[in-house]
Amino acid sequence: MFVLLDQGPAVAVLVLATICLGTFPVAFNWADLHGRKPAHTFLDFSAAFVLAALPCAISLSNTGPRIPIMPGLWEQMTQQNEFVVACACAAGFFLMLGSMSLQFGMALTGMAICLPFQIAVSLSVGIGIDWFMDHRLGKAAWVFPGLMCFSVATIFGTLAHVERQKCLKQKKDKTAVRQLVGLEDVMEKPLAAGMMKSVELSPTSSTGEGGVTPPRKRLHERTASDTADVILDLESPGKASRRSSSLRPLGAQVMQDTNAFEQDEPSTPKHTPMRVQYQRRGINVDGSKPLTGLIVLSIGGFCFGMLTPLFFIATSALPTTDYWRILPEGVPPLTVYNAYFYMALTFGFTAWGLNLALLYVPLCNGEESSLAEYAQDHRGRIVSVASGLACGVGMAFQFLGGLAGGYRVAEVVKMYPLLTAAWGLLLFTEFRGCGRRASYLLGAMCGTYVLGVGLLAAARNISLVE
C-alpha cells in the first residue's frame, strides 16, 4: 500500500484535495443556470467520479511495500470481511444521496450557503457518532463545543438564507411593477428614455390626427379602466390590436417586445461571465419556500454524516469495536483505499440506477427526458465530467494525505466548504445587493464553522499527546 512518509508532501496533497473538493460543486450550479436537466448532469458526474476513484483506489492499494496489517485489494477480497465491506458499500450509498441533495439544495439556496450548512450538519452527526464509538478521537471538553459551533453555524446559515430570499422577492416585485406600469413611470434612466424616444419617432408607432403622437397618461393620471386595459394587454398581447393604443403605456410595449425576444435568446451575462440568468433553469425553483431548501440540505447533511461512522467501522473495526466481534480473529479491517474502492463502486451503481429512473420521473416538477435525449445532450457535459474527476481525485488525495499527516493535518480538508462559498460569491455574485444584514449573517456562519473545525483539531491533538 502506498503511504507518504513526510508531512510536507502530505500537506501539499491535502491542499490539492481541498481545492478539488471545494471546486467541483461549481459544475452543479453552472449546469442548473444553463438549463441542463439535473439527471443528465448527475449521470455524467457519477460516471466520471467512478472512472477517477477506482483507478486511484486500485493503484494506491497495490503500490508500495506490503504491510501485513494493511493488505492489498485483491488479498482482502478473499478474506471473511463481509460486514465491513457492507459498511463501505452503505457509505457509498449515503454518499450518493448526499451528493444529489447537494445538487438540488444548491439550486434552492445557492452555493454560498449550501455546502457550509450541509457539512456543518454532517460533522455534527458524524463526529458525534464517531466519538461515542471511540472516545479516543478527542476530549469531550473540546469535541462538544466544536459540535455546538456547527449547530450555531447552521442557525446563522438559516437566517442568511431567509434574508437573501426576502431580497430576491423584492427584486422580483420591482421587476413585475416595471412590466406593469411601463418603463417611463419607474425608470428615469437614459437607456429607457432613448428606447421610448426611438419608438415615438418610428413610423409604425401609433399616432393621432395629423401624425402627432397623443400624450400618454402618467401613473397618477390613469383611471381604473386604463389600468385594467394595461393588465389585459400584458396578459393577452394578441388582443392588443383590437383596442386603442392610447390606453397602453409605451414602456409596457417595449418591455413586452423585449420579453418576446428573450424567449428565443437567453439574456446576456451581468457583472461576471458566470452570472447568466436564463428564462428556464434546469431545476424548477419557482414557488419554493425558504424552508424547502433547508430541509433538503439537512437531509443531505445527515447522509454525509452517516458516511463518516460507516467508513470508520469499515476501516477501524478491530481497534474500536473488538467487543462486537465484527471480524474473525486475525482478519484485519479494510484499508482506506480498499474501502474507497467499494464505496465508489456502490456510488456509481446506485447513482446510475436512480438517475436513469429520474429521467422519466423527474423531481421538482421538471421535464421528462429519456436515455436517447441524454446521449444527445452534449451541452455542459465537459463541465460535469470535469466535476466528477475533481471529486474522485480529491477524495483519493484526502485519504492519501490523511494517512501521512494524521488527524491534526487532515482537518485542513474540512475547510473546503468555505472555498465553495467563495466561488458562489465571486463567480455567481449570489449575495450582491442583498444588504449588510445578509452579509453579516453569512460571515457569522463561516466564522463559527471555522471555529468548530479548530476545536475539533485541538481536541484530537490533545488526545494524541496524552
Automatic annotation (TrEMBL):
Pfam families: Ureide_permease
Entry membrane topology: Multi-pass membrane protein
Localization per Swiss-Prot or TrEMBL: Membrane
Membrane-spanning segments: 12-30, 42-63, 83-100, 141-162, 291-319, 339-361, 382-400, 412-428, 440-459
Region (Disordered) residue spans: 199-224
Keywords noted in UniProt: ATP-binding, Membrane, Nucleotide-binding, Transmembrane, Transmembrane helix, Transport
Protein family (similarity comment): Belongs to the plant ureide permease (TC 2.A.7.19) family.
This protein's name: Uncharacterized protein
